[in-house]
Design brief:
The protein has 274 residues and is of the alpha/beta class. The chain is built from eight helices and eleven strands.
Length: 274
């Protein structure tokens, strides 16, 4: 029987360790195993790093009871995380980011670049550790884009893992055409969630010109454990602005964000150690 795998990229920093803790809690709920991934270049001491990573994985296994494996891969971090996730058929990638304060590559728009190069869903976390009860309250902004439907199955999946509640935020448009489009997306979502027999609530917002900020305020108000969005990139139908990675992924409340990416990845680099 196949076991789901969660991939956790690490550079051995505290924020990466926090991502591992989130992944372990999620793995217990699924259940799933966890694979720790470290990316190296040809100048790194691969044997030493492999040993260090394996030791971290073994320690995490002993403390959590979750099977944690390790893998070292060579290549560009922007491409390799998504490529490895595809190689091992990872269920999700749980990644840490320092927000806007500057970590080597996992910051703001750079974190988004890694996400964009993967077809595997991401959960991006900051310094806030996992809460008791896991992802119990999930904020679900419903955009105008048709791709919004793609994230519903993942939201339902997460809510069922933790017996949680989904909180929908829908825009209120004065324009009749846009209002009807928003209503269609909302109806599709509520019909789907009803069919899946999950608990949900609906709230609307008139802040259609700053849906990013409205989503963050909404998530903070409901004390959300997770925000779920689709990476639309430059979709003409998306209400999310070009700087959404700085507003949502790096939100001040440090709420983890699940990002479903529309694009597929191409293989880059090669696995050189496990």
């Amino acid at each position: 029987m196949k076991t789901d795998t969660l991939l956790v990229p690490t550079d051995f920093s505290e924020i990466a360790d926090n991502a591992l803790q989130h992944a372990l809690e999620l793995a217990k709920a699924i259940p799933a195993s966890v694979t720790l991934l470290h990316i190296v270049d040809d100048e790194d001491d691969t044997l030493e790093l492999s040993a260090k990573l394996k030791s971290k994985a073994e320690e995490a296994t002993q403390k959590s009871g979750v099977q944690v494996d390790s893998m070292v891969a060579e290549g560009a971090v922007y491409d390799e995380i998504g490529a490895v996730a595809e190689d091992i058929d990872a269920h999700m990638i749980v990644m840490g980011t320092h927000g806007l304060r500057g970590w080597q590559f996992l910051t703001g728009s750079r974190a988004l670049r890694i996400i964009t190069n993967s077809k595997t869903p991401f959960i991006v976390v900051q310094e806030r550790g996992p809460r008791e009860g896991g992802f119990d309250h999930i904020a679900l902004p419903i955009d105008l884009a048709k791709e919004e439907k793609q994230k519903l199955k993942y939201v339902v999946e997460i809510s069922k893992y933790f017996d949680g509640k989904i909180h929908i935020l829908s825009p209120e448009h004065k324009d009749e055409f846009l209002a009807n489009q928003a209503k269609r997306n909302l109806k599709y979502a509520t019909d789907y969630l009803t069919k899946q027999e999950v608990d949900f609530a609906i709230e609307t917002t008139p802040d259609v010109n700053d849906f990013d900020t409205a989503t963050i305020r909404f998530a903070a108000k409901i004390d959300a454990d997770l925000i779920c969005i689709v990476n639309h990139e430059e979709s003409a139908h998306s209400l999310f602005g070009n700087s959404f990675e700085q507003k949502l992924i790096t939100n001040d409340s440090q709420i983890p964000v699940m990002v479903i990416n529309e694009r597929v990845t191409t293989r880059a680099g090669r696995i050189i150690g496990t």
